[in-house]
Structures are given as C-alpha cells and as structure tokens.
C-alpha cells in the first residue's frame, strides 16, 4: 500500500504564497534544504498536483533535459496526477487528469503496491485530502520569516489533529517538522 506524503514550504506565520517566495523562501536557501527537497522528490514514485501548481511547474521543469537541480529528470519522467475540473489536456509527460471524484481515484492509487505519492505545493488539495483521511504524513518545511500577508497554507478551516513524528533543523534556522494526522 502506498503512502501519501504532503510536504509544504511555508513561512513561520503560514504563508505559502509563491508570489512572495523572495521574502520567505529565497533568503533561507542552503545545501541541507536543497538536499532534503531533492531526496524527497527523487524518492517518490508519483507526484500529485493541483491545477495551479501543475500549470506553474510544467513549463519550467519540462524544458530541462540535463537533470537540472538534481530533480528535473525525475519530475519529467515520474507518474503525475493533476486534480482539475478545467484541464482537458495534460501536456507534461506521464500525467493523468483526475476530475471531481479525485479522492476515490487517490484511494485506489494508494491501495496499489509501490513507492509514495508526493503532494508538494498544491495547498488547495491539503484540506480535502486531510478530511478524507488520505494523508499519511504532513511535512512542514518552515522558514524563519514572518511575512504577514499572502496566501496562507491553511486559509480555510481544517479540523485535523496531528501526532509528532520527527524534527530536523537545517542551516539558516529552517526547520522540518513531520506529523502524522490522527483521527479526531
């Protein structure tokens, strides 16, 4: 049975807005953080995206041919699912579009044997996946910055309790906290 792992990059105050990454993400880059991200991507078997993240990442990563940043080959070749009610064509290789019954499809995919499914970005998927009990691990890569404004990771009410699994500190005081969602 596959695990579904959600990993999110955020500021200390919960901002995960790609438009302001120059404030809360870029200043805290480090070799340790880069290695963690590379390992997380390269060790997954399937990527699961929301439409916005998919459309943001596809043009960038699909243009690379020489395994740029140590993950381009894997991102371009691994199996990908994108949740969208609007997309009619998936232009990134090995992508399947999941429609409105995506939770049922994810349940089926998780029942298969194989490596883990990774949700990275795609904040709009987190709440429904948590509420459906499909998230096996929630990994928060927290950058020591308070932004104050922007799209928050949990901007809608989410009712989910978490059990602590692990903690790691990277250079520049970036921390990774791993939780397992528990039944409420």
TrEMBL record:
One of its GO terms (biological process) is riboflavin biosynthetic process. Residues 2-175 form the Bacterial bifunctional deaminase-reductase C-terminal domain. One of its GO terms (molecular function) is 5-amino-6-(5-phosphoribosylamino)uracil reductase activity. It comes from the Bacteria. InterPro entries: DHFR-like_dom_sf, RibDG_C, Riboflavin_Biosynth_HTPR. This is Bacterial bifunctional deaminase-reductase C-terminal domain-containing protein.
């Amino acid at each position: 049975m596959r695990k579904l792992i959600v990993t999110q990059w955020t500021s200390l105050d919960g901002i995960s807005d790609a438009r302001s990454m120059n404030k809360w993400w870029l200043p805290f880059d480090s070799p340790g953080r880069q290695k963690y991200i590379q390992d997380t991507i390269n060790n997954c078997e399937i990527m699961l995206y929301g439409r916005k993240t998919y459309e943001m990442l596809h043009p960038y990563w699909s243009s690379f041919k020489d395994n740029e940043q140590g993950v381009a080959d894997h991102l371009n070749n691994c199996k990908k699912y994108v949740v969208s009610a609007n997309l009619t064509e998936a232009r990134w290789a090995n992508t399947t579009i999941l429609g409105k019954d995506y939770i049922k499809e994810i349940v089926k995919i998780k029942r298969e044997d194989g490596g883990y499914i990774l949700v990275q970005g795609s904040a709009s998927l987190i709440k429904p996946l948590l509420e459906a009990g499909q998230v096996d691990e929630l990994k928060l890569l927290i950058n020591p910055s308070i932004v104050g404004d922007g799209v928050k990771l949990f901007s809608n009410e989410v009712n989910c309790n978490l059990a602590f699994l692990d903690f790691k500190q990277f250079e520049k005081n970036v921390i990774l906290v791993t939780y397992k969602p528990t039944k409420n």
